[in-house]
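User: I'm preparing a small set of examples for a lab meeting where we compare how different chains pack in three dimensions. I only have the primary sequence for this one, and I'd like the structure in token form so I can line it up with the others. Please keep the answer compact; I'll paste it straight into my notes.
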Amino acid sequence: MNSRILPIIALIAAVVIFFAYVNPTWTGSIATARAAIAADDQALEAAKQYATQQNQLASARDSIDPTDLSALTRFLPDSVDNVGLILDLNALAARAGLSVANIDVVSSAKNVARAPDAGVLPTAALTPVGSVDLSLSATGTYPALQTFLKGIEQSARLLDIRDLVVKGSDTGVYIYQMTLRLYWLR
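Assistant: Understood. Below is the structure token output for the 186-residue chain.
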């Protein structure tokens, strides 16, 4: 009888050890570790795909002619550079014969595109191109304004004239109020 009790006690001990220690460990911390390893493996695979795509894009960028790339960077820069733009506009106005009195950045609340439907998000957040409006006040003759506008049109920088108001004068020297929109890559 003694020879039959020992295997039964060993079997009961094995079942107790399995349900008390092995099963909770296997389904608890080991399962959590396996899930974390699987998530890390997915992240590693995504990082490899990202690095591959980044290398492809870098090689495509390197294949672009440097002069074309610098022209594109001047046309649509990756920062606003308000100071450089204001200096360029002031120099252009001086060459054209206009006297710039005031250049201000228009409030960004006016620049946000409003969606016509309340449930639709504005498209401004979805585009990679940002914009800012500049208000410019200048004084000069009409031919000087034409020269200034032609200079803006031929500028290497992407600018739009959004609004132009001319205040009349009997002397031939007018006051111009204009709003320019400047674009850059976000």
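A couple of notes for your slides: Helices lie at 2-27, 29-62, 66-75, 82-96, 108-111, 142-153. The chain has six helices and four strands.

User: Perfect, thanks.
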